[in-house]
Design brief:
The structure is a single chain. This protein is α/β, with parallel strands linked by helices and 259 residues long. It is 26% helix and 34% strand. It has helices at residues 3-14, 21-28, 46-51, 63-75, 115-128, 144-148, 213-222, and strands at residues 35-38, 56-60, 82-86, 99-104, 129-140, 155-161, 168-178, 183-193, 199-209, 225-231, 245-252. The chain starts with a helix and ends in a 7-residue tail after the last strand.
C-alpha cells in the first residue's frame, strides 16, 4: 500500500488525535536543542511543538504527507522553526547531526519489516544525535490478550465529516496476526457517503512488525543506546504486563558504539 495513499486519509482519521499530546509536551520540554521527528506525517505533532517554542526537523517518505505539513507550517508562520526532509527512516543523512532529541510517534517504527531495517533505522538516528541525546519511541505492546482479538472481524471505529467534501465517512477496521513473522496485518475500510446516499468505499492495508520489550532493548543497545525508562501509557504510567503501549526513552551512549 502506497504511503502517499495512506497520507491522503491521515488527517481525516488522525488529524484530531491529541491523546498523546501532553506526553510529547512533557517529554520534550527539557530538550536543550533541536528536535527530530522521524515519520512526521502531515505535521500533527510538528505544529504544536513548534508553537511551544521548539526548533524541529521533520522526516517522512511520503510526498503527499510532506506537502500537507508544509502548507500547515507556512499558514501558521512557523517556517523558521520547522524544516522538512523527504527521506527513508531506514537510511537517511541530514545536514544537521546535533539533535538533542529524536522521536518516532504512534507505531511508525513498526513499518520496519525486518531486524535489519529496525537496526538501520536506529543507527541512522544515532548518527544524528549529539552525545547524550535522547530517543523516544512509541510502539504497540503485543499483549497476548490483544493479539488473541485479532481474528479478522470488522470493527466500527468512528463516523466523521470530511471538511473538504462535506461527506460523511464511516471508518471500519480489521486486523490479523502472523505470530511467526511478528506481523500485524491491519486494514482500514472507509465508506464515504455523499449527499444522495451513494457510498464510495476505499480500503487501505498495511503490515506492521511488532517487537517485544527485551527484543527492543537489545535493538537499542546494538545501535548504541542505553534504555532509561519504559512507559506503558500516554499518561506515563510504568510499563506492565497488560499495558497497551511501550514508550521507550533511551539515550545515546557517550562512547559511539553504533555499528
Amino acid at each position: 500500500m502506497s504511503l502517499d495513499l495512506i497520507a491522503q486519509y491521515y488527517d481525516l482519521l488522525y488529524g484530531n488525535l491529541d491523546e498523546d499530546w501532553s506526553m510529547w509536551q512533557t517529554l520534550t520540554e527539557a530538550a536543550n536543542g533541536p528536535l527530530l521527528e522521524v515519520g512526521c506525517g502531515t505535521g500533527r505533532l510538528l505544529l504544536p511543538l513548534a508553537e511551544a517554542g521548539h526548533t524541529l526537523t521533520g522526516l517522512d517518505l511520503s510526498v503527499v504527507a510532506l506537502e500537507a505539513a508544509r502548507a500547515k507550517i507556512k499558514a501558521a508562520g512557523l517556517t523558521r522553526r520547522v524544516s522538512l526532509h523527504r527521506a527513508d527512516m531506514r537510511d537517511f543523512d541530514l545536514p544537521r547531526k546535533n539533535f538533542a532529541l529524536a522521536f518516532i510517534p504512534l507505531n511508525t517504527f513498526m513499518h520496519c519489516a525486518s531486524t535489519d531495517e529496525q537496526l538501520s533505522t536506529l543507527v541512522a538516528i544515532h548518527h544524528h544525535l549529539r552525545r547524550g541525546g535522547q530517543l523516544i519511541i512509541d510502539i504497540f505492546h503485543p499483549d497476548p490478550a490483544l493479539l488473541a482479538e485479532a481474528d479478522g472481524r470488522l470493527y466500527f471505529e468512528d463516523e466523521v465529516i470530511d471538511d473538504l467534501t462535506g461527506h460523511t465517512v464511516q471508518w471500519y477496521w480489521r486486523h490479523q496476526i502472523d505470530l511467526a513473522q511478528q506481523i500485524r496485518h491491519l486494514t482500514y475500510v472507509l465508506d464515504e457517503i455523499d449527499s444522495e446516499g451513494l457510498v464510495r468505499r476505499a480500503q487501505l492495508s498495511i503490515s506492521l512488525r511488532f517487537v517485544y520489550r527485551y527484543e527492543m532493548e537489545l535493538l537499542l543497545r546494538a545501535a548504541g543506546f542505553t534504555v532509561e525508562t519504559i512507559y506503558g501509557s500516554y499518561d506515563l504510567e510504568p510499563f506492565h504486563s497488560h499495558s497497551q503501549k511501550m514508550i521507550f526513552v533511551a539515550r545515546k551512549e557517550e562512547v559511539d558504539s553504533s555499528r
